[in-house]
Design brief:
Elements: H1 3-9, H2 14-23, E1 33-36, E2 43-46, E3 53-58, E4 61-66, E5 94-99, E6 114-117, E7 120-126, E8 129-134, E9 145-148, E10 151-154, E11 160-161, E12 178-183, E13 187-191
Antiparallel strand pairs: 1-2, 3-4, 3-6, 5-13, 6-7, 7-8, 8-12, 9-10, 10-11, 12-13
Length: about 190
């Protein structure tokens, strides 16, 4: 029985139910990614606490992948200037660096593909255009945001967000954090 079902059975409704649900959020209330390897029925668990575990998704298939993330003020050896005029080596407040040539980033090679890594969802929204948002939904602090064709979507309660982070329904009304993205075609840098 979930906490929601329990509180409903105790007679909580409306605002009282929401207050009780959001009053205490524990680490075990967060989403744990559970994946199934194609061709098997055994789920493979990946916890959200490991900064080097990511989930690559393109279309309706899921596969576990591992890639490394660079955070902090580390600069990339690449000095190529992006189409937006940003030199990747000068970005100091990096949240995530993705090597597009790696197999771990294969989902980002197609329009509509996305990758979840280190609590950030990075999606290719159109040819060569990438958008990055937080994986944590603003409706409830659950790490359940994914990219769904033309929008970001929370799989827990259905909160929907456009590509600028603006909410598209009542669950997404608070909006979602969108990060800056720079790329030279080989490397993607997500920064704040």
């Amino acid at each position: 029985m979930t906490r929601y079902e329990f509180l409903k059975s105790m007679g909580f409704t409306g605002a009282a139910l929401m207050a009780a649900l959001t009053a205490c959020v524990r680490p075990e209330d967060t989403v744990v990614d559970a994946l199934t390897i194609p061709g098997t029925t055994t789920p493979v668990a990946s916890t959200t606490s490991s900064p080097t575990t990511s989930t690559a998704t393109s279309g309706a298939t899921s596969s576990p992948t591992t890639s490394t993330a660079t955070s902090g003020a580390t600069s990339s050896p690449t000095t190529t200037t992006t189409a937006s005029g940003v030199d990747l080596s000068t970005i100091t407040n990096r949240l995530l660096t993705i090597d597009l040539t790696s197999s771990a980033a294969s989902a980002l090679k197609t329009v509509g593909g996305y990758l979840v890594q280190s609590g950030i969802v990075v999606a290719q929204t159109s040819a060569g255009v990438y958008v990055a948002v937080t994986q944590t939904c603003s409706h409830e602090p659950k790490k359940a945001v994914i990219f769904n064709k033309t929008e970001f979507y929370c799989t827990v309660h259905g909160a929907r967000y456009d590509l600028t982070g603006k909410g598209k329904n009542s669950f997404g009304s608070k909006g979602i954090t969108v990060y800056k993205v720079a790329t030279d075609g080989k490397i993607i840098v997500v920064y704040s």
